[in-house]
Every structure is written in C-alpha cells, then in structure tokens.
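Issue 218. Parser rejects a valid record. Input:
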Amino acid sequence: MSLYVAAYDISDDERRANMAHALLRYGDRLQRSVFELWLEPGQVRALCRELGPLLSATDSFYLFPIDERGSRATIAWQRPPATFQPVIVD
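Output the parser choked on:
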C-alpha cells in the first residue's frame, strides 16, 4: 500500500462534488480539493478509471505519489506570508 496526495481544480459544482465523493471512498480529505489516499497498485488503476469520466477538458486532477522511505509522521503547519501587504480601502 502506498501513500498518494490527490488534488483537483474543477469548475462545475456537480462534477466537483462527485469527485470529492469518489475520493472519500479511497481516503481522507485534507482541504476542500486535496485528499490523502492509501492505495494498492490495483486501486490506482481503478481510481483513474472511476475519476476520468468526471473530468472535462478544462478541469485538472493530480495524483502525487509520496516517497515512503521517509518518516511515516505527518508534519503540518500554517506559515504566515513572507511579506505583509496592507490594503487601503477608501
């Protein structure tokens, strides 16, 4: 079993909801359009067959394999922006 991160950008609400629903069967949601998936090799092929019809020509979907040789621990944090740009409203 291998770890993957799936991310997508889909403009249509219904297709986007169908994509999220399908991905939730394979793993956990990390953000609105980013999922963590633990997949067997056969599941990767099945996932691609299932998700392909949900995408249009203007949509994008990425499935990133995560190197398993590193630590199993997940490290996450929120970093502030590098520079602060004030917004002035008249």
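Fixed in the parser; the record now loads. Helices lie at 13-24, 41-51.
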